[in-house]
Design a protein that fits this description.
CATH topology of the largest domain: TIM Barrel
Largest sheet: 8 strands, parallel
Number of helices: 14
Structural class: alpha/beta
Helix content: 25-40%
Number of domains: 2
Oligomer: single chain
Radius of gyration: 22 Å
Distance between the termini: 12 Å
Length: about 425
């Protein structure tokens, strides 16, 4: 039977992760795991407010994920290896406005999860979760954690109010990730917020951060609406990255949308292709200067090859007057999306029905949120769902893409 490799598996952080791991001066400012009225446990913010609303997952032990519990879960679900994503830690981006505190919280998690993966490096691959508030510092952290064994990086799905990933300040992140050969993941629910996330949230703002509501308690409809539309900030970030020419400058870079499924990407590509072809507004500098129009007088940025001055005539892209983005002749936004973006999924009939937009090389199967105490996954239904996929494509979706991207040795399985 074909072995499954999960590109999206979640860990439960230990209840004392931050109370024991942070410096003494910061311990009372981080998340805490506290008892609930129904004899369970839940994560709360420093002031006692719950970190999540109506859909808070139950915790029955403060121990968190261990190498033994993760291995048992993988064995139970017939999974050969897994890429590890955070649970509570993912909410730190919107919970902590203070950048120093955010870095401390993330670094404590990174130390722990890398130790977890190191206990079984053949089957477990850890990702470092990074603070992007200072991109130069973040790039240094990328190199540091890669040297410690991180197989990739988690960045917030949106960088925060007034910031976008097409801005030049983030160029160092794409260059460093490409140099290291490590993929970047934009994870659901990780939008960077200027203020703390509170329990009275019903949706996301334009930057992916939780937006305040006039209601003290969110309704079930509001929570469902938030989750049903949660891909929007990530979709916007990926679109800006592609229109900024990031993948042209760094062809080895791979960026994933993780936690959203995959079917949404077909329309995202159709819409962005249309915008590239018909919208006249200037969206930014061209990604490069065609050799045919270069001259010694051009003010060319040596780092990214873009015209920095006001003369941009002769470039191609979104604006006929030459002030928009330039793709090579015959290429569209969707070509760059298909080559460089990966999508995780569990069971997504729509994604498999549009191969002209979403091909097998883009898709990575993942377990999603599973816990050590959960019932075994219905592996028969999982296998049945993929039974209609051609054998070569099925191997890509469930094993080969993940193995190649994260360095699993499937021959040793």
């Amino acid at each position: 039977m074909l072995a499954y490799y999960s590109a999206e598996s979640y860990v439960d952080e230990p209840g004392d992760l931050w109370s024991a791991g942070l410096p003494l001066s910061l311990r009372d400012q981080a998340f805490r795991l506290v008892p609930t009225d129904d004899a369970g446990l839940r994560w709360v913010q420093p002031d006692g407010r719950p970190m999540t609303e109506l859909d808070d997952p139950a915790r029955t032990t403060s121990e968190g994920t261990t190498p033994a519990s993760m291995q048992a879960m993988l064995d139970r679900d017939t999974v050969g290896g897994a890429v590890l994503y955070p649970s509570a830690t993912a909410l730190a981006y919107s919970a902590f406005a203070d950048s120093e505190l955010l870095s401390a919280v993330l670094n404590t998690y990174n130390e722990w999860v890398l130790g977890l993966a190191a206990a079984d490096p053949r089957r477990l691959k850890a990702l470092a979760v990074l603070n992007i508030d200072d991109p130069a510092d973040c790039a240094r952290d990328m190199r540091r954690w890669a040297g410690r064994g991180a197989a990739g990086f988690v960045l917030p799905c949106a960088p925060g109010e007034g910031r976008r990933y097409d801005q030049r300040r983030y160029e160092v992140l794409w260059r460093t990730a490409a140099d290291l050969g490590r993929p970047v993941s934009l994870l659901m629910g990780t939008g960077r917020a200027p203020g703390r996330r509170s329990a009275n949230t019903t949706g996301q703002g334009t930057d992916g951060a939780a937006a305040p509501s006039a209601e003290a308690t969110p309704t079930a409809a509001a929570v469902l609406a938030f989750h049903a539309t949660s891909v929007f900030p990530t979709r916007r970030s990926l679109t800006a990255i592609i229109f900024a020419g990031v993948f042209e400058r760094y062809p080895a870079l791979r960026i994933g949308a993780v936690g959203f499924g995959a079917g949404w990407a077909a329309y995202a590509m159709v819409r962005a292709d249309e915008m590239y072809e018909v919208r006249p507004e200037r969206a930014g500098p061209p990604t490069r200067v065609p050799a045919s129009i270069r001259s010694p007088a051009d003010d060319v940025d040596a780092e990214i090859g873009a015209i920095a001055g006001g003369e941009r005539s002769g470039t191609r892209g979104m604006a006929p007057e030459g002030v928009g983005y330039y793709f090579p002749p015959g290429e569209r936004f969707s070509d760059h999306f298909r080559r460089h973006v990966f999508l995780t999924f569990r069971k997504d009939e729509l994604a498999l029905s549009v191969p002209e937009f979403i091909n097998a090389d883009m898709l990575l199967w993942g377990q999603g949120r599973r816990s050590a105490g959960a019932e075994p996954a219905d592996t028969a239904r999982r296998d049945e769902f993929l039974a209609g996929v051609a054998e070569g494509d099925r191997a890509k979706l469930t094993r080969d893409n993940t193995a190649r991207l994260y360095g699993f040795d499937v021959t040793a399985a």
